Amino acid sequence: NLWQQFDKECYGEVVAAVERRWGLLPPDRVISVYANALLFKQERLKLYNLAQQAIKHRPDCANTWYAVGLHYCGQGREEEMRKYWLKGISKEDNSVPCWIGLGHSYGQAGDHDLAVNAYMAAAHHYAVGSPWPRLFLASEYVRCRRTALAEPILAELSNWIGEDASFLNEMAVCKAQSRDYRAAMEAIDRAVELCKHNTEPTASSLLRSILINRLHITLASLTDQDCRHSPLRTLDTAMSFAQELYEMSPKDDVKVRKI
Question: Which of 19, 136, 203, 227 has the greatest number of CB atoms lying within 10 Å of its CB?
């Protein structure tokens, strides 16, 4: 299953499998996973060519316009990517990839209500039993600190998703928001461990985000009035976490100093 390979961050394997079987213009049902794998592999020219071929041969397919939106996503052009994802939805209003793309875009721009609506639409149309649209919805609730709405979704998904660094990262932040620092630290430590064993190029960006969250959670537990007399970790531990973050990514020096 190509999406299972994608979820394991085996982007190169996805690209190779698609091109070996179908060439550069796979069937409609495969375009979305192929386009995503190209984006994560930073194969921008291939993604551009895929979008052009899909427009030429399948202009009425929602996944065509999803691929076009991803092309602009890779360039950071938010207005264009939203335009084409909305066009994809106008072709097929049950286009889960387009709804999820919109949710990501709105969330990154701070338009949390629009992001929540997009993720809800994706979850409504997605195949029964898939956890990902609901995980994105829970993540959006975490970002806008609506912890009471995020917690039951994450608890439900924990048995489905299992050992996934991104999921554990979201779980840790949610637990910290509800001041369950022990559970938060257990989740974030496991996320760090999983991410450090991942050799995909995108893993370093995720690890950086997880390390920042680990530092925030540790400091939050140290400054919480109910925890400071029996801290789960020490200030020296927090300093070592900050040092590790700085050594991994010196460009974060200002952010680490601020924290």
Answer: 136
The stretches of 162-225 forming alpha helices (DSSP H) are 165-177, 181-196, 203-223
What 3-state DSSP class applies to 207? Answer: helix
Q: Which of 63-72, 216-225, 248-257 has the lowest mean pLDDT?
A: 248-257
Contact predicate 189/222, CB 8 Å: no
- CB of 74 closer than 8 Å to CB of 105: no
SS3 27: coil
User: What is the distance between the alpha carbons of residues 89 and 66, in angstroms, rounded to a whole number?
Assistant: 9
pLDDT given for residue 64 in this prediction: 96
- pLDDT, mean of residues 43-59: 95
Taking the model in full, what pTM does it have?
0.84
Q: Which two tokens mark 245? A: 């973050």
DSSP three-state, residue 179: coil
Judged against a pLDDT cut of 70, whether residue 112 lies above it is answered with yes
Quick one: average pLDDT of 198-204?
69
Helix H or strand E segment including 69: helix 62-73
Query: How far is the CA of 249 from the CAs of 39, 40, 149, in angstroms?
Result: 23, 20, 33
What's the rounded Cα separation, in Å, for the pair 254 and 87?
A: 40
- The CA distance from 171 to 214, in Å, is 12
CA–CA separation, 199 and 9 (whole Å): 9
